[in-house]
């Protein structure tokens, strides 16, 4: 396409937006409302996913070594666990460290446990992490059958429920976002279709004088692009401002906790770019779907 023709299409698309002010406003508003909903859901789901991922990373198997096992027995057990394909890491935690951790976890009340420093009743422990957190249950069952594995703990019952809730939340969030995007496409397509129907005579005249489908389609293609970009501006501003406020308010309160929010930068800029891209694609798709029926021979 020649540069002069492309400039002509740009001018025509902008003039059309100005001539059809109310329809432009209606189309851009439909994009705006939908992208606000999509943006809010996306921000919430991404932060929930971070919390879920952090929780998954905290899942571990604690293998209490039999008190009858010697150093060689412990190393043999450790090597066997390391050879399980799903296992990522195995760390040895001596019973002295386990006792110190218990004392620290109880704070002031933990002082009472110092009485056991001379005669420590705890077991040495192997802390096992899997490559995929969902493999925790299967790996734990394999370890239970090994010699000198006196007790295997991994939060049985609670872990299964945790993974179930996490998967359910992720699936629901994905379905909602996809549903909102299809709703947006439907709204934009119908709104732009009304605009194009009002200009069907213009399209018919252009076809009669020999204009190609591509020549007719380009201004509408660009109109859809502008509508999508215009509709994305307000959601980007609202979501960026709101997330900055929420992040500044909650981040200090959650610091040091597993429920940390995604950092403002670069997360908000990534969301902004995604919303802009979504708006542009939705606008283009709506325009192309609407003008297609008028270009059929």
Molecular structure report:
The protein has 297 residues and is an alpha+beta fold. The chain has 2 domains: 188 residues, no CATH class; 94 residues, Alpha-Beta Plaits (2-Layer Sandwich), CATH 3.30.70. Helices cover 70% and strands 8% of the residues. It contains 9 helices and 4 strands, in the order H-H-E-H-E-H-E-H-E-H-H-H-H. The chain has a 4-stranded antiparallel β-sheet with strand order 2-3-1-4. Helix 8 packs antiparallel against helix 9. The mean pLDDT is 77.
List the helices and strands and how they pair.
Elements: H1 3-19, H2 21-58, E1 61-65, H3 71-82, E2 87-93, H4 95-105, E3 125-130, H5 136-144, E4 149-153, H6 158-197, H7 200-208, H8 213-254, H9 264-292
Antiparallel strand pairs: 1-3, 1-4, 2-3
Helix pairs in contact: 1-8, 2-6, 2-8, 2-9, 6-9, 8-9
As a percent range, the share of helical residues equals 55-70%
* Class based on secondary structure composition and strand pairing: alpha+beta
How many structural domains?
A: 2
Radius of gyration: 30 Å
Kindly estimate the percentage of residues that lie in beta strands according to DSSP. Answer: 5-15%
| Count of discrete alpha- or pi-helical segments spanning 4 or more residues | 9
Number of strands: 4
Short structural summary:
The protein is an alpha+beta fold and 297 residues long. Helices cover 70% and strands 8% of the residues.
């Amino acid at each position: 396409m020649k540069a002069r023709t492309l400039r002509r299409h740009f001018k025509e698309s902008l003039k059309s937006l100005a001539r059809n002010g109310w329809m432009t406003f209606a189309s851009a508003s439909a994009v705006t409302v939908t992208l606000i909903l999509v943006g809010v859901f996306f921000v919430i789901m991404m932060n929930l996913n971070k919390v879920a991922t952090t929780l998954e990373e905290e899942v571990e198997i604690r293998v209490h070594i039999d008190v009858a096992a010697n150093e060689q027995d412990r190393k043999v057990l450790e090597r066997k666990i390391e050879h399980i394909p799903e296992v990522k890491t195995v760390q040895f935690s001596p019973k002295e460290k386990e006792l110190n951790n218990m004392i620290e976890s109880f704070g002031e009340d933990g002082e009472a446990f110092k009485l056991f420093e001379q005669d420590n009743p705890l077991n040495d422990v192997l802390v096992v992490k899997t490559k995929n957190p969902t493999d925790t249950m299967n790996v734990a069952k394999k370890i239970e059958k090994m010699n000198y594995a006196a007790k295997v703990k991994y939060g049985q019952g609670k872990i299964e429920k945790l993974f179930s809730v996490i998967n359910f939340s992720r699936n629901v969030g994905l379905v909602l976002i996809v549903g909102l995007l299809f709703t947006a496409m439907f709204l934009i397509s119908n709104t732009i279709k009304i605009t194009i129907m009002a200009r069907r005579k213009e399209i018919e005249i252009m076809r009669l004088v020999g204009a190609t489908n591509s020549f007719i389609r380009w201004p509408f293609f660009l109109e859809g692009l502008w509508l999508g970009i215009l509709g994305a501006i307000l959601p980007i501003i609202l979501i960026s401002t709101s997330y900055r406020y929420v992040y500044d308010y909650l981040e200090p309160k959650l610091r040091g906790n597993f429920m940390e929010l995604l950092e403002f930068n670069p997360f908000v800029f990534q969301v902004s770019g995604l919303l802009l891209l979504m708006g542009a694609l939705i606008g283009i798709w709506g325009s192309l779907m609407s003008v297609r029926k008028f270009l059929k021979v």
